[in-house]
């Protein structure tokens, strides 16, 4: 009886300690595959079944294309992005495609690394990794942050820039700030536009290139001009601006430049010589 009582008390003590002491929490890894369909993961009710079916049909067409592209869509809470990931606040408006610091780029990197590793943890090689990057397109939406980011595959990466992204999201970005159903419609419309563009790009034999290089040139030129204008103004002021002569006259600015360039010396000498020639005899005749 006493033995059973001791065992019971020991078990109760262990159970109490287990409940009171802090537990080790295993780091959470973001998902890398779909849960509601082959290419769609959502950690809550988001897309309707009709929207899911439509998006999967779009993926079927992409998979049958020449370059066999796919688009994976992840609807995630900030916690699902991983314990080591910090969500930036401005990626809704500033999209650096493929940047591992935005949700889509980070997710793409994890998927590529996972697919490039065998069951024993060995690296399959650079060739395998490059072939995976060639077709993996990742779209991530975080409803709590209204954050929609996209990471294109290496084959289609060259087509995407800020202007193209604005075109793809035009008319639907405002829906991402509303109710869940409105957000789902917005993400669905934008994803459909992306898939249509991806299908065209996937029929090509060579990787896509930016069709508007002049846009990048103008952006760089405008940035450079913005930084150089103050320096140009300072240089112009130092080069052509007036220098103080100690006079209170407002009209002496031209006088400074006139004197500085030697015009005064020339004109003064010329005037002095003329005067001297005209009155030389008078000076000699004058006894004083």
UniProtKB/TrEMBL annotation:
Residues 1-27 form the signal peptide. The keyword Membrane applies. The chain crosses the membrane at residues 221-238. Keywords: Membrane, Signal, Transmembrane, Transmembrane helix. This is TPM domain-containing protein. The lineage of its organism: Bacteria, Bacillati, Bacillota, Bacilli, Lactobacillales.
């Amino acid at each position: 009886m006493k033995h059973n009582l001791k065992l019971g008390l020991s078990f109760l003590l262990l159970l109490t300690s287990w409940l009171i002491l802090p537990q080790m929490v295993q780091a959470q890894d973001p998902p890398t595959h779909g849960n509601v369909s082959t290419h769609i993961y959502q950690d809550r009710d988001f897309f309707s079944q009709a929207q899911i079916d439509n998006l999967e049909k779009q993926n079927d067409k992409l998979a049958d294309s020449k370059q066999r592209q796919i688009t994976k869509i992840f609807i995630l809470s900030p916690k699902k992005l991983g314990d080591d990931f910090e969500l930036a606040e401005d990626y809704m408006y500033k999209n650096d495609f493929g940047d591992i610091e935005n949700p889509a780029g980070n997710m793409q990197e994890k998927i590529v690394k996972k697919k490039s590793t065998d069951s024993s943890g060995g690296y399959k090689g650079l060739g395998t990794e490059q072939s995976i990057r060639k077709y993996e397109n990742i779209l991530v939406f975080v409803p709590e942050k209204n954050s929609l980011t996209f990471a294109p595959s290496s084959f289609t990466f060259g087509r995407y820039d800020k202007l193209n992204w604005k075109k793809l999201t035009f008319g639907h970005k405002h829906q991402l700030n509303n109710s869940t159903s409105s957000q789902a419609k917005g993400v669905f419309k934008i994803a459909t536009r992306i898939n249509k563009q991806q299908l065209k790009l996937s029929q090509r034999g060579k990787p896509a290139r930016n069709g508007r290089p002049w846009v990048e040139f103008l952006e760089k030129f405008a940035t450079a001009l913005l930084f150089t204008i103050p320096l140009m103004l300072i240089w112009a002021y130092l080069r052509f601006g007036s220098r103080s002569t100690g006079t209170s006259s407002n009209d002496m600015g031209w006088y400074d430049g006139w004197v500085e360039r030697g015009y005064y010396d020339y004109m003064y000498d010329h005037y002095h010589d003329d005067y001297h020639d005209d009155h030389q005899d008078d000076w000699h005749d004058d006894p004083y």
